[in-house]
TrEMBL record:
One of its GO terms (molecular function) is biliverdin reductase [NAD(P)H] activity. Residues 25-226 form the NAD(P)-binding domain. This is NAD(P)-binding domain-containing protein. It comes from Aureobasidium pullulans (Black yeast). It holds the Pfam family NAD_binding_10. Transmembrane segments: none annotated. InterPro entries: NAD(P)-bd_dom, NAD(P)-bd_dom_sf, Polyketide_Oxido-like. Belongs to the avfA family.
Length: 241
């Protein structure tokens, strides 16, 4: 029987080896956790946020105002950073509530538009500027859909989560075809608020049980561990606790 792999999250604080981070999605739920932990670990972070948004000030945080859908705004944010960069995107489709049938509040293919803008912005950078992109995906995207249980497959197909799934599938394809070094973690259902050890259920969730879940804090810590490790480059690990 296949076994899952446990992944112990790092507590590294050696700032001499930490890359700069350009964070897209820092005002969202998981994005805020990524930002908080990145600053705690000692990363220098530039957050691209919309003009109407705000974040608490921090000595290691630079705010760049603009749209994650605009290549020029992403390019401007990159220009504020000296040295190697890891670009992290935690953007996601939104609804009026967590109910899968709740009305959507994001346009279709919103995340794809941002991923396309990111790829275009990176094309204009020196080859050694952006080391990798880490784009938060989800369990159910493309190759992992078949490994969801039948209830989750039906929910994603017949509820308003379908718009999210279509967007995630398109992002997955676009990032893989872009030529960029990428990591696209696929979290299982987000549940709980404690950072726990992460189990890797395979790149397509082939080691999944019936209803795996993972806390957003665990996902945030995994993303930051992936900024300093090459282990997950070119991978789509499904994450659970």
């Amino acid at each position: 029987m296949a076994t899952t792999r446990a992944f112990k999250m790092s507590t590294t604080t050696n700032t001499t080896s930490l890359p700069n981070i350009l964070l897209i999605g820092s005002t969202g739920g998981t994005g805020r956790l990524v930002l908080e932990s990145a600053l705690t670990r000692g990363h220098k972070v530039t957050a691209l946020i919309r003009p109407s948004s705000a974040l608490p000030s921090h000595p290691s945080l630079t705010i760049s105002k603009g749209s994650p859908l605009e290549t020029g705004d992403i390019t401007t944010a990159l220009a504020t950073i000296n040295g190697p960069v890891v670009l992290i995107s935690t953007l996601g489709q939104t609804r009026t509530s967590g109910n899968p049938f709740a009305a959507t509040t994001s346009p279709p293919l919103f995340m794809l538009a941002s991923a396309t803008a990111v790829a275009e912005a990176i094309k204009g950078q020196p080859a050694d500027k952006v080391k990798k992109v880490i784009v938060m995906s989800m369990f159910g995207t493309n190759s992992s859909f078949a490994n969801l249980n039948f209830l989750m497959r039906a929910t994603m197909t017949y509820s308003n989560m379908r718009q999210t799934l279509e967007d995630q599938n398109a992002v997955d394809k676009a990032i893989k075809e872009s030529g960029m070094v990428f990591v696209m973690p696929r979290p299982a259902m987000l549940k709980g608020d404690t950072a726990l050890s992460v189990k890797i259920l395979g790149d397509a969730g082939e080691k999944s049980g019936f209803m795996p879940s993972v806390s957003a804090k665990s996902v945030a810590e995994f993303i930051l561990d992936a900024t300093v490790s090459q282990e997950w480059d070119g991978r789509t690990p499904v994450l659970a606790n």
